[in-house]
Write a structure and sequence with these properties.
Length: 229
Amino acid sequence: MSGRLSTVGIRITHSIPVILGVVVVSFLLTRALPGDPAVYFAGPAADEASIAQIRTALGLDKSLPEQFFIYAGDVLKGDLGQSISTGQPVAEDLANRLPASLELTLTALMLSCAISIPLGVLAATHPGSIIDHLCRVLVTAGVSLPTFFTGIVLIYVFYYLLGIAPSPLGRLDFIYIEPDHVTGFYLVDAALAGDWETWLGALKQLILPAITLALFTLAPLARMTRAAM
């Protein structure tokens, strides 16, 4: 038990420089981008006095080291600032969008495990067979093809050519109403509400993105399962 705790402690210690690097790089990138955030937040009709006031409120009038320490302190407190695109706090936007990402990720992971583990077992128990060669092909394709390319191909084939997939415009088609928010997972919330029509609509929207991610994660899982067997 103590050995496992020490291993966890070492891994956490090794992650500290990575986290610090991400904080420093993200701070420098935001400062290196062209444009003045104060001008953006003030609006096109703002005068110099209003822009200067907003620049002071944002802390942009301070030196670069002072801005970094303020930025790092806000990150430690969980204050990620305000989104330029929505005008809402970034932490709030992330919390609102996190259920969609988790629902997609978990669905893709379950689909990937349901295919890769049996496929890896069959490939290991039948070496040199068609199943073994199929496993190798899937592993190679999953590693070689990037997810953005796979997603575009699936949309082109199943939505544009065959017309059997719904339009890739979001979590639900416009003909459906979002279920009452309970967990943020549309499949779960629609099932809890007994709205199976919306549940089916959410599932249809989820299929192609889940397959795209599943193909990417399927490759290492099938390879590890085959090697372990």
